[in-house]
What does this fold into?
Amino acid sequence: MRIGELGQATGVDIETIRHYEKIGLLSPPAREANGYRNYDAAHVERLAFIRHCRALDMPLAEVKRLLDFVAHPEADCGDINRLIEEQLGRVRERLSSMQALEKQLVALRARCGENHTARECGILHELVAASHEPEGRQR
Amino acid sequence: MRIGELGQATGVDIETIRHYEKIGLLSPPAREANGYRNYDAAHVERLAFIRHCRALDMPLAEVKRLLDFVAHPEADCGDINRLIEEQLGRVRERLSSMQALEKQLVALRARCGENHTARECGILHELVAASHEPEGRQR
DNA sequence: GAACACCCTGTAGCGGCTACAGGGTCAAGG
DNA sequence: CCTTGACCCTGTAGCCGCTACAGGGTGTTC
Ligand SMILES: [Zn+2]
Ligand SMILES: [Zn+2]
Ligand SMILES: [Zn+2]
Ligand SMILES: [Zn+2]
It folds into this structure.
């Protein structure tokens, strides 16, 4: 199948597919006589796998590591475990900082009353005032 | 004060300070005879404000808009309100997708038992299997 | 006069795409 | 036969928000 069909089949932009090939994440497919890329079922499989991992917000470098495991199934599984664990750690860290962020934004929003000018805006005052304190009371 | 002192005072890397100047976020300071940047109190104020907004994960483009409000306090505050609202919307969207992500990763981790090879690893099997289904059951 | 801390400009890199520019290929329709 | 259109190719540059050099200049101290 050609690149357009592969994109159709997996819901991936063809520019992205070429990008994955360029960075060595998706193996170069065969070429037709006219130079067009010609993908097979394994490519569909692989690309779907990549996208699934990306949907789990894994960096491409980690996806690459996982693909290596798929290619060499005799390897020990401990590393896979660790990879997921690391990923989970990062996600949780990000999650908690985003929760703190949401709280701050909600508080900020509450500072703004009815129509007035920027000079009298509680949001702006709060932002200016807050930037006078050392960052990170919440730590 | 020189750039190093400003960095000290605000906890911002001097490369970052020069970067902010280059992209027009921080106004160019005066220069000493030898060409060294010479900042004043207003710059400290402004830089602290920028960093505080960044800590709230605002894109620099929005920080710029806020700085415009600070500079023109006669403007209507409605836009400030909207800006914070948009920011909150983005944060919440990201937050809920990260929560879903965390769940998936926890489920994934549970699939891996004791020591075994990648071939028998439940995580890998799950990832491969999941990539066969159309993405986004959760939507 | 040499070591050191500081400063300057400019360029290139990161990740993960996205968007061109400037071409080639091939089937259907006027 | 020729044009239109859909598809494909390569290569380069841009996005964000930094970060890291390379290759220099300045100014104080021993
Ligand atoms: Zn207001
Ligand atoms: Zn102030
Ligand atoms: Zn396992
Ligand atoms: Zn399969």
